[in-house]
Every structure is written in C-alpha cells, then in structure tokens.
Amino acid sequence: MKIKKILVSQPKPETEKSPYLDFAKKYNIQIDFRPFIHVEDLTAKDFREQKISILDHSAVMFTSRTAIDHFFRMCDELRVAMPATMKYLCISESTAFYLQKYVQFRKRKIVFANGKFDDLIEISKKYINEKILVPLSDIHKAEIPEKLTAAKFNYTKAIFYRTVSSDLSDVNIKDYDILVFFSPAGIASLKKNFPDFKQENTYIGAFGSTTGKAVIDAGFRLDIPAPTIKCTSMTSALEDFVKKLK
C-alpha cells in the first residue's frame, strides 16, 4: 500500500523548516495538520471551587508555556500580585525565558530543567521545604503528581485550564492513510468526533507510551510507535514505516 496522505494531530509548523515538511517532500506524501484538541480558560468561579489560595505557596512549578499563560491570567482575574520572593521552577530553559512576559526575569528566583520532568524533580529538590503550586490542565500526565508525591514534595496540584476536543466535523477521516497522535486526549477526540470510525486499513502512529496505550485501550491497532531505540522522533518512525511498505 502506497502512503499518500497523513493527518498529524498538531498545529501546522510555523516555518518551512520542519522535519514533517522535509519528510513529505522526500516521499511525495501530503501531510495535513489539524489539532484534535484545544485549551479553554477555566473561569475564576471554577478555580475558586478548588479552594486553593495561590499566595499560600512560595514556589510555582511550570511544565509548559500554556500553564504560565493561564496561571497569570487567573492571577489577573483574581487580582493576585506575585510577591518578589516567589520562586519559579520550570521544565526547560525556553519555558523559563517565557516568564519574561509576566515577571522581571533578573529579579526573580528562577530555575529550569532540560525539558525532562525527572530532571525538574532533581533540580527542585533544593526547594523540597517550599510549598509548591503546580498549575495544570484537567487532563495532564499522571507522572507529574505521582513523581512529586514519591519525592515527598509539599505541593498542590491546581487546575487552571481545560483540554477539550476540537470540532472536526469538516474532516473526512477516511481520506488519510496514517493518523498521528501525541496525547491520550487526541485519541479521545478521535472517538468523540468519529464514533463510527473503524481502523481497517488506516495506520495509526502515536508518540509516547501513554499515547500508545490510549490507542490500544480505545480498541485500535498501534502501527507506528515512537520513540523507539531505532526511531527517536515521530518523523523518523514515519519514515521507517513508509520504507517498509515499499
């Protein structure tokens, strides 16, 4: 079977320098990008129902830029001003620098990891006695609270925004030879938008073990798992799969 069309459940790359676009050109394959999920604001009223006081905490742990945006949006709505003593623990350098949008970077205590949550746990251990607030979506990786609890951090998990299924009514899902997913929420969106979808000759790729598990738990066949020892990225896994079909 020749692969002609692939649907990637992410936003289209902002620049032409993308491994997906290089892959599409190399194998003469059409790749469409369409997010299967999107983020919605949590209202101040809904946040208050969690009975969490932001200023009861002395540090904030950020795992994404989205979490930063929604944290400070909520602070504005609640008229909460961050004290100069607040510490910020970030998943990556780019996430840390994104804080400049909201705080004076040089005048704040900010630390960052290498993009991996395990590393964030390690560098945050010097703040083990701080009371840490962790802003998250209602749908988040289970490893975040699990690993914080295992490491005996004093933390509060707080929902600041929601991840919901996008409307895909204009998409003909059977037009595609391969569907590519990056989160369990994407699989949930597939089920919600296309309740009658039968996989049959459609191949499914998934990045990350939790996403792969969600594919199988939903009753589908996982054809292209990533990352693997051989293929560390989704595009390399796709290329390896396409080569094998020739």
Percent helix among the residues?
A: 25-40%
Task: List low-confidence stretches.
Answer: none
By DSSP (H or I, 4+ residues per run), the number of helices equals 9
**What's the CATH architecture name of the largest domain?**
3-Layer(aba) Sandwich
Largest sheet: 6 strands, mixed
Tell me about this structure.
- The protein has nine helices and eleven strands.
- With 246 residues, it is of the alpha/beta class.
- It folds into two domains: 5-36 and 173-245, Rossmann fold (3-Layer(aba) Sandwich); 40-163, 3-Layer(aba) Sandwich (Rossmann fold).
- The strands form two sheets. The chain has a six-stranded mixed beta sheet with strand order 3-8-7-4-5-6. Strands 2-1-9-10-11 form a five-stranded parallel beta sheet, sandwiched between helices.
- The longest helix has 14 residues, at 65-78.
Concise synopsis of the structure shown:
With 246 residues, this protein is an alpha/beta fold. It has helices at residues 19-27, 44-48, 65-78, 93-98, 117-124, 143-150, 184-193, 209-217, 234-245, and strands at residues 5-8, 30-33, 37-41, 59-62, 87-90, 109-112, 131-137, 154-165, 178-181, 203-207, 224-226. The chain is built from 9 helices and 11 strands.
Question: Key features?
Answer:
2 domains; Rossmann fold; 246 residues; 9 helices; five-stranded parallel β-sheet; alpha/beta; 11 strands; six-stranded mixed β-sheet
